[in-house]
Please model this.
Amino acid sequence: MNMDPFIQPYTLGIDLGTTSIKVAIVDAVGRVVENVTVPSLASVPSSAGEERQEQCPFTIWSALQAGLRQLDPDNQVKVQAIGVSGQMHGLLLWQGSKSWQSIDDQTRHIKLRNLSHLYTWQDQRCSQQFLSSLPKPDSSLRVASGYGCVTLLWLLQNEQCYLEKEQFTCAGTVMDFVVAAICDLERPVTSDQLAASFGYYSVPSRSWNIDILKSCGFPVEVLPEVRQAGQVAGHLQQGLEHIPAGTPVLVALGDMQCSVLAALQRPSDAMLNISTSIQLSVQVDDDAQSDTQLGEAVEVVPYFGSTRLAVVAGLNGGNVLTSFIKLLKRWLEELGFLGNMLDSAFFEKLLRLGQESPEDSTLRMSPTLFGERHDPDLQASLTGISAHNATLGALFRAASEGIVDNILRLLPPEVLVARGVKRIVGSGSVLAQNPLVLRRLQQRLAASEEMEFVQGSESDAAFGAAKAALAFLKV
Model:
């Protein structure tokens, strides 16, 4: 699409994250005009155990609408393309175009219905025994609990009634659903980025493992059509808030790839994003499918065009600190001391105590509470405990520093240097909000004279999704 030289177009980026919804408007030269963050508050408590991580898509939709309403209408009317990114791997089921209804063309309001819960990437209902019973995918990419295809296979085996009578006819990520709803698509489409994260998708052949999935009773007809990241999925059916109807919408994108696109300035950069989870990524040769020299935790995934990213997608990031706070609150409740203190207040107090604790403490934490995809059985551990050093502040410092130590163990700086990486660009909410994590990363990278650390200023996935939409307009 060629842009009119007399019009300065804007693009909109949407990021449907695990804990928040972000929207950003970018101008024709890639500068952020405005951005909004809204907490999603979408988690659904489960009586079946904490290993089940589900969210309410209706709540996510409401948070997205709330974020869009905060954008300046004068900026919205200039939007000429939309990119949507978000949390990868998860599963949402819906019933084609029967899952949304336009109830007011003037206000452009869409009502949702006939949706499953969103089974997120954090879902751990699929045991190692169940995973080992599944057929091996025809792919260089592993599958794990929380991956869309794996979760659906579990549902077929354990909650068959949930899928009977063609209640659901489409499957995809929550981003795929949002794109389908705003474009009124009867059949969903997705990007190769998200297909690779869904499981049972071959990156080299750009196709689902249809025969393998059919062999275990998987309803392959629910899978979305796959297009290359950066291509169009459809056009706004009736507009979105003040964004005009007919505006092109890209196929949904991965938040990891969009974060990288937002932050990296040079091919020799690596990207470290620490948010709920954690990713360390570096661009590799176009034809790379795997690289054993980078280590067993590294996978090569689609980026944009024909390029690839080598990435360590760690499962232990800000969620470790959230779990620390939940554990502390549970202990206090058991002792009968807990008031109505918010998690944010707990975090501020623990952060202050952590910054006051000695840097030379022998306390060390391996924070792998959630295992890792290459080793799901990993557990967390705490070492170096003495009679006097296990204070709350020291424990919080050890957890914060352990997050950094763990990801750099999976993909060490010296390995990146050997591949020509000259600096790591850091981003994410945890790096922005937790000085203990930032300081530890700076200390670790300072030990390498060949590696520079730069904290990215515009590196969130909503910004990257808007940049992807801008690249589409410039084609």
The longest strand covers residues 32-39. The chain has a mean pLDDT of 89. The two ends are 5 Å apart (CA to CA). The longest helix spans residues 392-410.
